[in-house]
Amino acid sequence: MKILDKIISIKQKEVYRNKIFNPIKKLEKSIFFNRKGISLAKNISKKNTFGIISEFKRKSPSIGRINNSLSVEKIVKDYEEAGVSGISILTDSYFFSGKPKDLTKTRSIVTSPLLRKDFIIDEYQIIESKSMGADVILLIAGILSKKEINNFSILSKKIGLEVIVEIHNENEMDKLTDNLDIIGINNRNLRSFVVDTNNCLKLVSKIPNNYLKIAESGIKHVKDILYLRKKGFSGFLIGENFMNTKDPGNTCKNMINELKIYE
User: Fold this and answer.
1) Which residue, among 73, 158, 161, has the nearest Cα to 115 in the 3D structure?
2) Residue 88, SS3?
3) Model pTM greater than 0.85?
4) How many CB atoms lie within 10 A of CB 23?
5) Which residue among the candidates 186, 199, 234, 241 is catalytic per the annotation?
6) Residue tagged active-site, from 14, 162, 166, 240
7) Which of helix, strand or coil describes residue 182?
8) Residue of 216, 234, 241, 253 with catalytic role
9) Active site residue 57
C-alpha cells in the first residue's frame, strides 16, 4: 500500500472512532467553539509583515523524528514573539506524532492565527478543528474531490474558519472553488514525499490573482522568501527548517530579523 493510501485508510478509522467517543454535540460545547476566529489571510496581507507561518512538527513520514526535545508551549510562544503571521500545528498522530492537545494548548497561550494541519476527509474534522481552537483548516486537493472541497469550505465559513486549499500540480487547480481564503502550493509530492522547490514557481502564475498564495515545503533561506515574494507569493509555510534546530523559535526570529533588512 502506498503511503498516501495508508494515511487515508488510517485516518478513516480514526475519524470513525472519534465520532463515537467525541460526538459533534460534545465538540460544540468546547470553550473554543464559539470564539471569534483570528484571520490568517489578513495577517499575511498586512504591510511590514513577511507572511511566515511557522510550524510545530515532531515527525514526518519522509525524514522520521525531527524534534522531540522541546515542549510545544515553548516553541509556539517563541514563534509568536518572533513575529510570525500564523502558526501551524500538526495534529495527525500516526505519521506525525501530533496531538489535538498540541493545538488546544497553543490556543490557550498565543493570540496568533492557528492552522490545523491534518488530513481532513470528513466534515466531522472541520467541527473538531473549531472545537480545538483552530482559526484555519487545510484542505488537500490531492485527496478530495471538487465537491468535497466546496462542501467543506462552505461548512468552514459557516462556523468561522478560514480555508487553505493545498495543490501540488496543475490538474488540481480544477478543484478550486468559491469560499477559499488562501491557495497553498506544496513543493512536496504527497505520493513520493520528494521536494521540488521549483514546483510552486511552475504553478503560481496559473492561479487567479484573487487568491492569496502561499508556498509550502523546502523554504530554507531568506533569499528563497525574497525571490518567491517577487513571483507572487504572500505567505510561506516553514516547518522542518525551524524544527530541525535546537531552538526553533530563535531560528525563526533570526530569519524574520534578516528579512527586515530588506523592507
Assistant:
1) 161
2) strand
3) yes
4) 12
5) 186
6) 166
7) strand
8) 216
9) yes
